[in-house]
Every structure is written in C-alpha cells, then in structure tokens.
C-alpha cells in the first residue's frame, strides 16, 4: 500500500494513512527497522505488510515502510497503474 501520513500515534504503535480510496491504519510501526524517518505527517510512504482487517477501514500490520516523498508525484501516478493492473490480473 502507499499513502500520505495523516496522523502518527506512536503510543498506539499506529499510523493513519490516506490514499485515493480513503484512509487505512498501519500497525506495528514502532517495530520497523529504519521506519522512523517515515513517521512524519505529510510524508508519502510505501507499506509492506499483512492485512489484519478490511472493515470498517483496512488495517495492515507493517513489515517494512519506505519514504517515497522525494518523487511522490511519480509514485502516486505509478501506484494507481499498479493497482489497476493487479485488478485486471485478478479479474
């Protein structure tokens, strides 16, 4: 998943992200090696992990996070294409 950091809740080990489809929560952020630089409001980040829930909003247990802010415009456009491609493959 990719999205913009809306809120960081280190005391709850969680970050709230926003992508084109809405918000989603990322849990386990305090345990990610080198993940701390990603935990700033407004950063555009990529999250790899395991889906924990899908309703009422997606929740992901993070394994890896990467800061994509430097080229965020390109990453946003490419992410949309990646999601569309995957949807076609799965259909």
UniProtKB/TrEMBL annotation:
Stored Pfam families: RMI2 (PF16100)
Source organism (scientific name):
Lates calcarifer
Provide GO CC annotations from the record: cytosol; nuclear speck
The record's InterPro entries line, in alphabetical order, gives: NA-bd_OB-fold, RMI2
**What name has this protein been given in UniProt?**
RecQ mediated genome instability 2
Question: Which GO biological process entries does UniProt record here?
Answer: DNA repair; maintenance of rDNA; negative regulation of double-strand break repair via homologous recombination; regulation of sister chromatid segregation
Gene3D superfamilies xrefs: Nucleic acid-binding proteins (2.40.50.140)
């Amino acid at each position: 998943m990719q999205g913009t950091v809306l809120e960081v809740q280190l005391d709850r080990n969680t970050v709230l992200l926003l992508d084109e489809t809405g918000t989603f929560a990322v849990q386990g952020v305090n345990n990610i090696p080198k993940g701390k630089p990603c935990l700033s409001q407004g950063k555009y980040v990529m999250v790899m992990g395991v889906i924990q829930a899908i309703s009422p909003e997606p929740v992901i247990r993070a394994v890896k996070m990467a800061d994509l802010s430097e080229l965020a415009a390109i990453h946003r456009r490419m992410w949309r294409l990646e999601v569309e491609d995957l949807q076609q493959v799965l259909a």
